[in-house]
Design brief:
The protein is of the alpha+beta class. The chain has 2 domains: 34 residues; 67 residues, Roll (SH3 type barrels). 56% of the residues lie in helices and 23% in strands. It is built from 2 helices and 4 strands. It has a 4-stranded antiparallel β-sheet.
Amino acid sequence: MSLVFMVGIFAVFYFLMIRPQQRKQKEQIKFRDSVKKGDKIVTIGGIHGKIVEVQKETITLEIDKGVRITLERSAISMEGTKRYTNENAKNEQKVTTELSEN
């Protein structure tokens, strides 16, 4: 009886905690591998910038005119970048709508 209970607990942990975390980790790796020159990103430290150079393990990020930093690919935040690009898209759509109304 207790063996069945232990297997049940393990199954619950696996499907509710371990499996979703593995899936999220694969998505992050895929996202980091798909970045290219010209993409606007956010780092895990909160730095916003535009990619100007992509290498195998590093990227060069332009954070202001003439200010460039080199970062590891692992420093790219998938959630922060998606939030940043969604906010920019909403703002651009809002400006376009306001301009077309005038």
